[in-house]
Design a protein that fits this description.
InterPro entries: vWF_C/EGF_Fibrillin (IPR052080), VWF_dom (IPR001007). This is VWCE protein. Pfam families: VWC, VWC2L_2nd. Keywords: Glycoprotein, Secreted, Signal. Residues 1-53, 53-114, 111-172, 178-238 form the VWFC domain. The chain folds into four domains: 9-88, no CATH class; 113-147; 179-216, Ribbon (Complement Module, domain 1); 222-268, no CATH class. The chain has no helices and 24 strands. The radius of gyration is 44 Å and the shape is flat. The strands form ten sheets. The chain has a three-stranded antiparallel β-sheet with strand order 1-2-3, with no helix packed on it. The two termini are 86 Å apart. By secondary structure, the chain is mainly beta.
Length: 269
């Protein structure tokens, strides 16, 4: 076919034929596909052999591990494992069923319950007369009753409330906060109050829900010798200069502390 093959080379030709080069001759034979499962998937596109990594059951492809019920097999459950399909069917007891069983699986019917002059079907749930907090259920001719389960409350005892006709306590809504507590000493700020917590670059506000929101101020203007004003967040670069612990005004000339022969001047730039 116009292609050179090395001695001993093996390749697959279209039509699932396996060919080999032996002594200058090309020998071809049909590809052998040993199948080690009962329900293999058809060979994929471009492949020759069916696959056991899934199942083909009644014309439907199933993935490995799929659990399914055939359409015309009542209550039978099948599973696909390594290309094999295994199915199980329920065992139906004769006569009345001791427990619930779907009508299309077994011909038996679960026993009904007679309770306080009334008859209930299997699986029926009902409450006692005048007691909505007790729930009963009919199971195979027997009635089982229990109190309605109540959720676990995360509120303190004085905030719990039992309303009319209710079986379980509920939590009352906590009172709306009147302000924000900001420290262990009980200091409270009213809602909407703005203050600085000691750092002049940080401002806080008391929110409506009683929480505190704080935000820092970023100083944009910088200079090498600013004047720092107590209680003010950002240094002042326009009023003058701070040099060797002393403050000098704009255009003020002064001798250098390091060299008395050197004269300095404060300039705003």
């Amino acid at each position: 076919r116009g292609a050179a093959r090395e001695p001993g080379a093996r390749w697959t030709e279209p039509g699932c034929r396996s060919c080999t080069c032996q002594g200058g001759r090309v020998l071809c034979e049909a590809v052998s596909c040993p199948v080690a499962c009962s329900h293999p998937l058809p060979a994929p596109a471009g492949g020759c052999c069916p696959s056991c990594e899934g199942c083909l059951h009644e014309g439907v492809a199933r993935a490995e591990g799929d659990v399914f019920s055939p359409s015309d097999w009542n209550c039978t459950v099948c599973v696909c494992l390594a290309g094999n399909v295994s199915c199980i069917s329920p065992e139906c007891p004769p006569g009345s069923c001791p427990s619930a069983s779907p009508a299309d699986c077994c011909s038996c019917q679960p026993a009904k319950c007679s309770f306080r002059g009334r008859t209930y079907a299997h699986g029926a749930r009902f409450s006692l007369d005048g007691d909505d907090c007790t729930i009963c259920v009919c199971r195979g001719g027997e009635v089982e009753c229990s109190f309605a389960p109540c959720p676990v409350l995360d509120c303190p005892q004085h905030q719990r409330h039992l309303g009319p006709g209710q079986c379980c306590f509920t939590c009352r809504d906590p009172p709306a906060p009147a302000g924000c507590f900001v420290d262990d000493n009980g200091v409270e700020f009213p809602i909407g109050q703005i203050w600085s917590p000691g750092d002049p670059c940080e401002l806080c506000i008391c929110q409506a829900d009683g929480s505190v929101s704080c935000k820092r101020t970023d100083c944009v203007e910088t200079c090498p010798y600013p004047i720092r004003i107590p209680g003010q967040c950002c240094p002042d670069c326009s009023a003058g200069c701070t040099y060797m612990g002393r403050i000098f005004y704009n255009n003020e000339t002064f001798p250098s502390v390091l060299d008395p022969c050197l004269s300095c001047i404060c300039l705003v730039r």
